[in-house]
Structures are given as structure tokens and as C-alpha cells.
Design a protein that fits this description.
The structure holds three protein chains of three kinds. By secondary structure, chain A is mainly alpha-helical. Helix content of chain A is 73%, strand content 0%. Chain C is α/β, with parallel strands linked by helices. Chain C has helices at residues 7-14, 18-31, 99-106, 136-142, 157-167, 174-184, 188-191, 204-216, 234-247, 260-266, 289-294, 299-309; strands spanning 59-70, 73-84, 88-92, 116-124, 127-128, 143-146, 222-226, 252-256, 269-275, 281-288. Classes of the chains: A mainly alpha, B mainly alpha, C alpha/beta. At the A-B interface, helix 1, helix 2, helix 3, helix 4 and helix 5 of A face helix 1, helix 3, helix 4, helix 5 and helix 6 of B.
Chain lengths: 299, 310, 310
């Protein structure tokens, strides 16, 4: 009896996955048959003219997510090191939960804060400064009027990804055997040398998996990004210009559909998100299981 | 051990001079250690700074929401219906979030625990691996994709409803509860199970009577955390239950209902000053609820652990 | 102190009758107090039967009234002893008697243990190991340590040895240094053709010799060995004991061991630790190994040493 119930529950997980794939792909099929793979790089999106292309959104999605990954991985790993190696116990017990609670803040609240507090600050202080110092690089262009930009979206995603990488990498570092660290310390190694020589090499694949899980989160995030990225439909070299991502466009337009093809095109965006999401997840799992670490994907 | 070498004689050795210059020198940094220690110190400062930065951002966000939200907050804000979208109280959204999350929890918790029990008690190597992979994939699904799936399944033909949002949230919660419960169940000592087996108790009685109760604290904690996460999700509300008729409290899950995250989102999109004020107030209520659930779950878990001696 | 060096020995010299044994025991308990820590010249002066192993040797460690506690728990009662240069000093005794605690305190490996607190003084070549200006990393660079469980790094054999010299900037003739260390540890012939293979592929005994090679590669002044052979088979154990004899002319070696015969075979001086009435580790007797095993001054030492030999 109990076995039956449990097996049904296990089956349901797989049915849900299959159902997700089926619904999303069948919803997208009119757009898939009409636009084919060209949808991925064509960048015109005109619902009332029945012309759809995801190129520019795919680009902005990758840019914001990679920016978040590039910022959040070193910060998150540093925090993981602080929590596992450096902080005294008392501080650990306070800072660890606080950082995990940063991950618990709903994305819509981060979006609200991002629009009203962060974006003006970024527009007035961060973007002009970066433009002044690094303006010779095209990605650091002139700040626009609102601060709603690809750059701000990247920052908000960073805030969301840091706690994920931090708590996963903390758990990884805590799993490094004490004897290995003692062995390194007994050879007259400094704390950093112990970390670089022993702790990081024996957890590197787990850290990569953690970063990939964070990337997956960033790629699929919709609400916070939609709030701060500003919308818009042109490709820009500068990070300080507005843009829109796959997930952001989806939530912007799902409640104001122009026609059936429009809905199918939105489903097509979800297919892209699904494929990217599943791929990052599978790669992360493969890396983590090579490490033999079953626990890390639980979050 | 009794044959003593002449202690004054130098070691018979043709090796180069030792790299340790003088063992009797004071124990302060020698050689390149001063530089290495500085590098180490610098990186410790960077790591500490990163933690301070993250905690700082957390405090800034919480402070921003709390300071702006508190001025909006009042008894009537929590208990009255809005007079128009973005204006007035948020009682329907509070009730709506409560109903939607409660239904989602009622679906996800038993399923999640059953999946965990399946993984622990029944699954073979292969089937266990398949289910675990499915859970990880489910956990990695973007919420827009989950919401769109339920949209295609239910909303396209039947229109918006709170129950549709609950189903989407349950899909988001299920892997969280299942994986955490799985870990808690792994901690249940095998001896407990063996004791039950030795008494000739059947498998499901052992699970219900021995295994689950000793893991209950961890399961409840995981469920609270998952419910808190679900309560903050906006996308399922937006996709599946945003076409609300009327501005009053109702509890019929077959109709669309407001939820707090959706109110914040809608107010933010509208950009009207009264709406922004309502957004801060709603965000404050939502955040207070979620942070309280997080703190409560942690305290509960800590107490439960110390009681079980884990 | 008197307890460690002179006291029991002085008393023990005439001890033959039961009453004297009793009185000595009383004396030991009353002298096991920090205030009795006056430096003893006993061990460095000639014994009645001839020269002590310590005669004329430089003092490397001078522990003065050293006691250790972890939080509220006392682990080591105040002990006083000197450890001499180019000798092998064994610390023996039942488990939990504080010998490993003392060993790990010599190069400050206990600093990272929560609640660790050390009172008294450990002088290393006359410098306080726990002094305020002391750099812990420098301490460990001069005082190497090999642990109970072989703990090679998950790197190649070569990189295990070369890692610490690289850190220290000893990059010249690194290959020669690695070869010399492996030869010192009697491992060269076994691994010279597979230096790039992972160290974790070696057998337990080889891994432990690799750890010794790793420690001697940076040519420390002292080697601390914490039960280095307890996890190994007899042949590897013998190899490590021979290795210690070969390293003795160049290093001061302190070894903790459970194995009586090992102490008797390898050590020049032996310190016997036991638990006092409050279950706190304490030093009972410290003398030349021959004396500890053949003519122990304290009945507890005699009981322990003979009990093990049957």
C-alpha cells in the first residue's frame, strides 16, 4: 500500500517533467513551424505584424546572466570561504542565516527596490564613474536617464545568485577533511595557501556546479529583471542601455496578447528557457556527481 | 637506543646547506613569509569584505522596504478591500496568498514526503537515480516555464483560477520538500529501523510509526521554507490568477484571486504614486511574513535537533 | 616539573618497600602543582649508572607548567619537561591522557580547535611558542608534523612534496629537493618512475612515508609524529621506525605512540602520561627509554609498561 503511494508520487515527478515539456513545446509548435531555428537569432519582435524573433532577448539574457555569474561566483565563493574557514563560530551562526535569508527575499521585492532605490543610485553614481574610468571600452557607455538598464538587471541578478553560490560553496568547503587542511598547515603554509593548495582544488568541480546552478537561476529569473531592465528592442553595445530578456518579455506580454501566434511565440521563448535551464542543470548534476556529492543539489 | 652519537659532531652529510637558516632565531616571520602572510591577510580581508557586503545589501533592502512600508501600514491597510487597483487596503491579496499557498502546501507536502520515503525505503539504484534526477530538473525549471505549462494545461481553456496558481506553486515546492525530507530521513538512525524490523512490524507501520515521526521536525522545517518561497513567487499569480473580478475578499479557489506578490508587481508596473505606496506596504507585509517564517523554521529546527540529540 | 623529571626518579631510586611506594604516590600528587615548577637539572646531569641520553644536549623544547583545556574540560594537567636536540622522544600512555594534545601544542596545531586554551609556557630554543610576536606559520615551518592517518593531498606524488617548498620560495633545484626528500623517506625507489601519478594511489604505508617526505622536504628543525604507524601494517611500521633512526642525526623527533615496543625500539627518551584522579592527562615519568622500561621509578609506569608486555 505504502509502496504503491510512494511509487505513484515518484511517478508524478516524472509525469510533471514530461508534461512541462509537452505543454511548452505543443504551445510553441505554431511558432516553431513558422519560424524554425531562425527564431533564435532574428531580432525583430512585432506582434501586430506577426513577426517574431528572440535574438535580442537571448542576447540580453546571456549578457545579464553572465554578468551576474562573473560577479557572483567570486563574491559567493569568498563568502563561502569566510563562513567555513575564517569566521569564528558565533559570527558564522549569524552571518550564514542572514545570507541565506537574502536568497529568501522575493524577486518582486528586489525588483521594487531595484527600480526605486538601486536604479537611480546606479544611474547617478555607478554608471558615470564606470564610464569615466573604463569608457574607452564600448560596454561602459554613457549613463541613460533612468538607470533602468542591462547593467542594473545584472546587479539585481548578482544579488540573487550570490547567496546560492555562497551557501553551496560553504557546504563544499566544510566537507574538505580537517586532516588535509591540518596537513597543509603543518607544512608552514599560510591560510590562503591552505585554501588555494588544498581546499579549492578538492572542491573545484563542486564550485563550478554551484556556479552553474546560480547561472540557471539567473537565466530563468523574470520579475526582478523585467522591473529593472527597462524594456526596449534594440541591441546595444553598452550595458547602460535598456533591454529585455526572454523571461522578462514573457511576463510583460502574456496578459496582453495580440494574436494566437503571439502566444505561440511566447511559448517558444519558454522552450528556449527550458532547454537552457535543463542543460545547465544537467551539466551541473554531471559535474557534481563526478564529485560524488549527492547533497549539494538539494537546494 | 643506547648507542649515542656524539652530540657535538655535525651531521654526516654532503647535502647543501639547510634551507632553514637558523632554528634558534626568534619565531617571527622569516624568508618570504612576510610577503606570504600579507597576501593571505589581504585575501582574508577580501573574503570578510564579501560577507559584509552581502549582509549589508540584505540590511539595505530590508531597511528600505521596512522604512517605506511602515508609513503605509495600518490596521485598515491590512483588513480592507482596495477601492480601486493600487488604492486602499490589501485584504484580498493577503487572503488570496494564504489560500493559494495553503492549497499548494497541501498538494506538495504529502507528495514530497512520499517521494522522499520512496527514495529511502523502496527505490532501487536505477529508479532512485531517475527520480532524483527528475527532482533536480524540476528544481531547476524556471518559474516562467512551470507557470506557462499550467497556463497551457488549465488556463487556456478554463480561464484564471487560484487553484491553477496553487498547482504551479506545488510544482515549485515539491522538489524542495522532497530533497530536504530525503536528507532528514537519511539521518534517521538505521538502528531505529532495524529495531522495528526486529519486532516484526510491517514496513509501512515502521515508516509511519518510527521513521517519519523522528524526522518530522526536519520535514516541517523544509515545508515552511518551501511555503515561504512559494508565497513570494509572482509569475504563477501573474500567468494564472491575475484576471480577478471585483476588489473584495473571497475564498473560492476556482476563481481568480489576488496574491501579495502580484499586487506589488501590478503597482510597480502602473507607476502611479498611490500604487507605489501600496507596493511598499504590501512588500513590507510579504517580506515580514517570509522572514518570520525563515527565522521560525530555523529556530524550530534547532530546538528539534537538540531534542533529538542530532 | 619535579613530577616530570626529578621527583619520582629521586624518590624511586631507593624505593623497594611497599610503604615507600605509597609515600611516593602521595608525594607525586602533592607535587603535581604548578608552583613546583623550578627548572630541574636532573636529566642533564649524569645518572648514577652513567650518562643520560640527554647529557650535554641542547634543549629544543622547554615546557614549563604547561596545561591545556578545551572549553571547561581540562585535557592536560600542568607538566614540565625538556625535549633534547637530535634525540627521539616518545610520548606514551593510555588513550585520552593528553599526549597528542601536548604534541599538537608544540607547533600550535591546536589553535584552530574551538575552546583551546594553554597555560604555562612552551619555550622553543628559548622563545615562547605562544609569545605575542610569534608567527604561527613560522612555527609550523620549523616544527613539522606527521599525522596519525596518512593525509596526502589529492595531487601527484611529485606535487605533494614540491608544494611546500614552492610556497616557501625554494624553487631552485626543486627536482633534486623532491628526490632527496623521497630518498630520506625511503620511498624513492618505489615511486621514482611514477612521480606524476596521484598520491592517493599509493598504499597506506607508502602514503605515510610520503607524508614524512613531504615534511622533510622543507628541512624543518623538529619532526612531530602523531602515532605515525598506528594505521599501518607491521612491515610499513618497521620501515617508518628505520626511517626515524636515519633521520635522527638531522632532526629532533617527538613521537606519540600507543605501541610500547615501538617506543622501546626507537626512542632515546620516553615520557609516560596517564590520567590522574580527575581524569585529566598528566605526565607521570620522563626519563631515558631504557630506564622507563627496565627500572621505572613510578609504579604506574611499571604497571603500564609491564602490563603491556604481559
Amino acid at each position: 500500500m505504502l509502496y504503491g503511494l510512494c511509487a505513484v508520487a515518484g511517478l508524478i515527478t516524472m509525469v510533471v517533467i514530461a508534461e512541462v515539456v509537452y505543454q511548452v513545446v505543443s504551445g510553441a509548435s505554431p511558432a516553431i513551424s513558422r519560424f524554425g531555428l531562425g527564431f533564435l537569432w532574428h531580432s525583430t519582435w512585432k506582434p501586430n505584424f506577426f513577426v517574431f524573433g528572440a535574438g535580442e532577448m537571448l542576447f540580453a539574457t546571456l549578457v545579464t546572466s553572465l554578468m551576474a555569474l562573473a560577479l557572483a561566483t567570486p563574491i559567493g565563493v569568498s563568502i563561502g570561504l569566510f563562513l567555513s574557514m575564517l569566521a569564528p563560530r558565533g559570527i558564522r551562526g549569524v552571518v550564514g542565516p542572514l545570507i541565506e535569508m537574502l536568497a529568501a527575499i522575493p524577486s518582486v521585492i528586489l525588483g521594487l527596490w531595484g527600480v526605486i532605490v538601486l536604479a537611480p543610485f546606479v544611474q547617478q553614481h555607478v554608471e558615470p564613474w564606470l564610464h569615466g574610468v573604463l569608457g574607452f571600452i564600448p560596454i561602459f557607455g554613457v549613463a541613460q536617464t533612468t538607470g533602468l538598464s542591462v547593467f542594473t538587471a545584472g546587479l539585481v541578478l548578482t544579488i540573487m545568485v550570490v547567496p546560492i553560490v555562497a551557501s553551496l560553496s560553504r557546504d563544499l568547503f566544510l566537507s574538505v577533511p580537517r586532516e588535509l587542511q591540518d596537513g597543509a598547515a603543518a607544512l608552514g603554509a599560510t591560510r590562503w595557501e591552505v585554501i588555494r593548495g588544498v581546499v579549492l582544488p578538492s572542491t573545484s568541480s563542486g564550485v563550478i556546479a554551484a556556479a552553474l546552478l546560480g547561472l540557471g537561476r539567473a537565466l530563468g529569473e523574470a520579475v526582478a529583471v523585467a522591473a529593472v531592465i527597462g524594456g526596449g528592442s534594440a541591441l546595444h553595445a553598452s550595458l547602460f542601455q535598456p533591454g529585455t530578456t526572454l523571461a522578462a518579455r514573457l511576463i510583460d506580454e502574456i496578459t496582453s496578447l495580440d494574436n494566437k501566434l503571439h502566444l505561440a511565440a511566447l511559448f517558444y521563448l519558454a522552450v528556449i528557457l527550458l532547454v537552457i535551464g535543463v542543460l545547465t542543470n544537467l551539466i551541473a548534476q554531471a559535474i557534481a556527481s563526478r564529485l560524488g556529492n549527492q547533497t549539494m543539489l538539494a537546494r | 637506543m643506547s648507542a649515542l652519537p656524539d652530540p657535538t659532531a655535525p651531521p654526516m652529510d654532503d647535502r647543501p646547506a639547510s634551507s632553514l637558516p637558523d632554528p634558534t632565531a626568534p619565531l617571527t616571520a622569516s624568508g618570504n613569509l612576510r610577503r606570504r602572510a600579507a597576501v593571505s591577510r589581504l585575501l582574508e580581508i577580501v573574503a570578510t569584505g564579501s560577507a559584509v557586503l552581502a549582509v549589508g545589501v540584505f540590511c539595505i533592502v530590508v531597511y528600505a522596504i521596512a522604512s517605506r512600508g511602515a508609513s503605509v501600514l495600518s490596521f485598515s491597510f491590512l483588513t480592507t478591500d482596495p477601492s480601486a487597483p493600487g488604492v486602499g487596503g490589501i485584504a484580498p491579496a493577503i487572503v488570496g496568498t494564504g489560500v493559494i499557498v495553503a492549497i499548494a502546501t497541501a498538494i506538495a507536502m504529502p507528495l514530497g514526503v512520499l517521494v522522499a520515503v520512496y527514495l529511502i525505503e523502496f527505490a532501487g539504484r536505477r529508479s532512485g537515480r531517475v527520480v532524483r534526477t527528475a527532482l533536480d530538473l524540476m528544481n531547476g525549471l524556471p518559474t516562467v516555464v512551470v507557470a506557462l505549462m499550467v497556463y497551457g494545461l488549465l488556463v487556456v481553456d478554463h480561464g484564471d483560477s487560484a487553484i491553477a496558481a496553487s498547482i504551479a506553486l506545488a510544482i515549485i515546492m515539491l522538489p524542495l520538500i522532497a530533497r530536504s525530507s530525503h536528507q532528514v530521513l537519511l539521518l534517521v538512525p538505521g538502528t531505529l529501523r532495524e529495531a522495528a524490523d526486529a519486532l516484526g512490524v510491517s514496513r509501512w507501520r515502521a515508516v509511519l510509526g518510527v521513521v517519519l515521526p523522528s524526522a518530522l521536525g526536519g520535514i516541517v522545517t523544509a515545508t515552511i521554507l518551501a511555503a515561504a518561497r512559494a508565497a513570494g513567487e509572482t509569475v504563477p499569480l501573474l500567468f494564472l490568477t491575475s484576471l480577478v473580478v471585483g476588489n473584495t475578499v473571497h475564498v473560492n479557489p476556482l476563481h481568480a484571486m489576488y496574491g501579495m506578490p502580484y499586487v506589488v508587481f501590478q503597482d510597480l508596473e502602473s507607476g502611479v504614486p498611490s500604487g507605489i505606496a501600496q507596493a511598499w506596504g504590501t512588500a513590507f507585509v510579504l517580506m515580514a511574513f517570509i522572514l518570520a517564517a525563515n527565522v521560525g523554521a530555523r529556530v524550530f529546527l534547532a530546538r528539534n535537533r537538540s531534542r533529538l540529540g542530532l | 616539573m619535579t613530577l616530570g623529571d626529578g621527583g619520582p626518579i629521586t624518590l624511586g631510586e631507593g624505593a623497594s618497600s611497599g610503604t615507600e611506594v605509597v609515600s611516593r604516590r602521595v608525594r607525586i600528587q602533592t607535587t603535581a602543582r604548578p608552583q613546583t615548577t623550578t627548572p630541574s637539572q636532573r636529566a642533564t646531569s649524569p645518572d648514577r649508572d652513567g650518562a643520560s641520553a640527554a647529557t650535554g644536549r641542547a634543549v629544543v623544547f622547554d615546557a614549563r607548567g604547561v596545561s591545556v583545556s578545551y572549553g571547561a574540560k581540562r585535557a592536560l594537567a600542568p607538566i614540565t619537561m625538556k625535549i633534547y636536540r637530535n634525540l627521539i622522544t616518545a610520548l606514551i600512555g593510555p588513550s585520552g591522557c593528553g599526549k597528542t594534545t601536548l604534541l599538537r601544542s608544540l607547533n600550535r596545531m591546536n589553535d584552530s580547535v574551538p575552546g583551546f586554551k594553554l597555560e604555562g609556557q612552551i619555550l622553543y630554543h628559548g622563545h615562547d611558542v605562544y609569545g605575542s610576536a610569534v608567527n604561527r606559520v613560522e612555527v609550523r615551518r620549523r616544527i613539522g608534523m606527521v599525522f596519525q592517518k596518512p593525509n596526502p593531498f589529492p595531487k601527484s606524488i611529485y606535487d605533494n612534496i614540491a608544494w611546500a617548498p614552492r610556497n616557501l620560495g625554494l624553487k631552485q633545484d626543486l627536482d633534486e629537493r623532491v628526490e632527496r626528500a623521497l630518498r630520506d623517506a625511503a620511498l624513492w625507489d618505489e615511486v621514482k618512475d611514477r612521480l606524476r601519478d596521484p598520491a592517493l594511489g599509493l598504499s597506506g604505508g607508502q602514503q605515510q612515508r610520503l607524508c614524512i617526505a613531504r615534511a622533510v622536504a622543507i628541512e624543518p628543525d623538529v619532526l612531530l609524529l602523531d602515532e605515525p604507524a598506528s594505521a599501518l601494517d607491521p612491515i610499513s611500521t618497521l620501515a617508518i621506525e628505520e626511517l626515524m633512526q636515519a633521520l635522527k642525526p638531522r632532526y629532533t623527533i617527538v613521537i606519540v605512540t600507543h605501541n610500547m615496543q615501538q617506543a622501546a625500539r626507537t626512542a632515546d627518551r620516553t615520557a609516560f602520561f596517564s590520567l590522574d584522579d580527575n581524569r585529566v592527562g598528566t605526565l607521570i615519568e620522563y626519563d631515558d627509554t631504557e630506564k622507563i622500561f627496565m627500572r621505572p621509578a613510578d609504579t604506574r609506569t611499571r604497571d603500564y609498561v609491564t602490563g603491556r608486555f604481559g
